[in-house]
């Protein structure tokens, strides 16, 4: 029997925990019910699944979403456990830990393969939430010789996995292709087709060396130093610090607490943009510099009050504040008042686009900001009114 090569390589998955002793049952966990619109419930289910929770679909006629807090995520598998009722038993499928494996093989860090697979899996949220299609993803990085590659492919054949690979060396990529064909393994070469297309377009043969290989001499470019400078600037400008430097920023983000200003700023900074973020707090005057900078640099962030309250409660708990601690920070009345205060600020500055971040990943919000930023920079048509995106 072929030994699993997982221990020899960079395998991003954990073994499933042993089943608990049925003779020692644990107390039944309390079920938390959240009520909201169908759209919000669907968004919540998708987010909970990505976090590894097991969700139970309520019976028809109720708008509550039941979350089992005791559910655990194992081996990278997304699990869905529907309520067994006559109405929805034919529409829901129970997910088990035996998800369909996807092997990602790379001769470098595996960033390209991992992000490509994650982007593709994003097209199957409807399956993960509604019908159930468990997936286990495993990343093997730094695979630079054929022997190690063949061990992984053999293991993929044993487990019935899909093999996705980014191998810059044409001979390695061809070996992977032929081995998968021989053993009947479904496979996808992510890097090969686009490399061949660019080579044909440029009329130049590719080097065949992975990024970071010893044979590659990549000098530090101006772009590299620009990104480093942007990250340093953004960190210093976080949370309204040094308002006198707002005019030096490429992008200025503003919104109430917990709308994701800091992680969004860092994400944009890594792309080379100097970003400052200014918090909007009810009863606290905003810095004058915010209204003196070019208004086409400023972007407002807003969020659904129910989602914001949930995030703030979690934040307060992480800081050690118990349920008995009284604070208006996460009280719904205060949350709505603060969002209304921010809305009035945005209304007074109609050239600031207002971006709704509820249910959006950081990458999605950043894509909207960069599209608007470059449209304005290139003097594309832009309504002079505040809009939500």
Q: What topology does this entry show?
A:
Layout lengths: L31 E4 L2 H13 L3 E3 L7 E5 L31 E7 L4 H11 L3 H7 L3 E6 L5 H14 L2 E5 L3 H14 L3 E3 L1 H12 L19 H15 L14 E5 L5 H9 L5 E5 L9 H4 L5 E5 L2 H14 L13 H17 L5 E3 L5 H16 L12
Helix content, binned percent: 25-40%
Low-confidence stretches: 1-26, 28-36, 50-55, 57-97, 381-386
Give the helix tally: 12
- The count of β-strands is 11
Report how far apart the termini are. 55 Å
Q: Based on CA inertia axes, which overall geometry fits? A: globular
Over the alpha carbons, how many angstroms does the gyration radius reach?
Answer: 25 Å
Strand arrangement in the largest pleated sheet: 5-4-6-7
The CATH architecture of the largest domain can be given as: 3-Layer(aba) Sandwich
Give structural notes.
With 389 residues, the chain is of the alpha/beta class. It has helices spanning 38-50, 111-121, 125-131, 146-159, 170-183, 191-202, 222-236, 261-269, 289-292, 305-318, 332-348, 362-377; strands spanning 32-35, 54-56, 64-68, 100-106, 135-140, 162-166, 187-189, 251-255, 275-279, 298-302, 354-356. The protein has two domains: 5-13 and 29-202, 3-Layer(aba) Sandwich (Rossmann fold), CATH 3.40.50; 223-377, Rossmann fold, CATH 3.40.50. Helix content is 38%, strand content 13%. The strands form three sheets. The chain has a four-stranded parallel β-sheet with strand order 5-4-6-7, sandwiched between helices. It has a four-stranded parallel β-sheet with strand order 9-8-10-11, sandwiched between helices. The radius of gyration is 25 Å and the shape is globular.
């Amino acid at each position: 029997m072929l030994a699993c090569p997982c221990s020899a390589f960079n395998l991003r998955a954990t073994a499933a925990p042993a089943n608990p002793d049925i003779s020692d049952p644990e107390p039944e966990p309390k079920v938390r019910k959240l009520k909201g619109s169908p759209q919000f419930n669907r968004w919540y289910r998708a987010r909970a699944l990505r976090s590894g929770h097991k969700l139970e679909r309520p019976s028809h006629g109720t708008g509550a979403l039941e979350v089992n807090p005791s559910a655990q995520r194992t081996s990278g598998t997304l699990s869905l456990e529907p309520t067994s009722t006559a109405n929805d038993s034919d529409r829901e499928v129970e997910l088990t830990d035996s998800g369909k494996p996807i092997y990602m093989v790379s001769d470098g860090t595996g960033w390209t393969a991992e992000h490509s697979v994650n982007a593709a899996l994003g097209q199957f949220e409807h399956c993960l939430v509604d019908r159930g299609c468990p997936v286990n993803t495993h990343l093997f990085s730094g695979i630079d010789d054929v022997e190690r590659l063949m061990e992984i492919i053999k293991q993929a054949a044993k487990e019935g996995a899909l093999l996705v690979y980014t191998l810059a060396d044409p001979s390695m990529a061809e070996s992977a292709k032929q081995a998968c064909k021989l053993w009947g393994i479904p496979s996808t070469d992510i890097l090969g087709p686009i490399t061949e297309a660019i080579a044909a377009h440029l009329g130049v043969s590719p080097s065949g060396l992975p990024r970071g290989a010893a044979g590659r001499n990549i000098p530090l470019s101006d772009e590299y130093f620009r990104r480093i400078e942007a990250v340093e600037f953004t960190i210093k400008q976080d949370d309204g610090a040094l308002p006198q430097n707002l005019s030096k920023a490429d992008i200025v983000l503003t919104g109430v607490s917990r709308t994701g200003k800091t992680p969004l700023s860092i994400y944009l900074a890594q792309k080379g943009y100097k970003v400052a973020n200014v918090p909007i707090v009810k009863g606290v005057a905003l810095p004058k510099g915010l209204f003196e900078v070019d208004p086409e640099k400023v972007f407002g962030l807003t969020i659904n009050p129910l989602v914001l309250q949930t995030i703030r409660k979690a934040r307060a708990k992480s800081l050690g504040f118990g349920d008995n601690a009284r604070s208006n920070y996460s009280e719904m009345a205060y949350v709505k008042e603060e969002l209304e205060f921010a809305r009035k600020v945005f209304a007074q500055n109609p050239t600031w686009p207002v971006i709704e971040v509820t249910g959006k990943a950081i990458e999605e919000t950043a894509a909207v900001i960069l599209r608007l930023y470059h449209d304005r920079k290139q003097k594309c048509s832009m309504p002079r009114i505040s809009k939500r995106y």
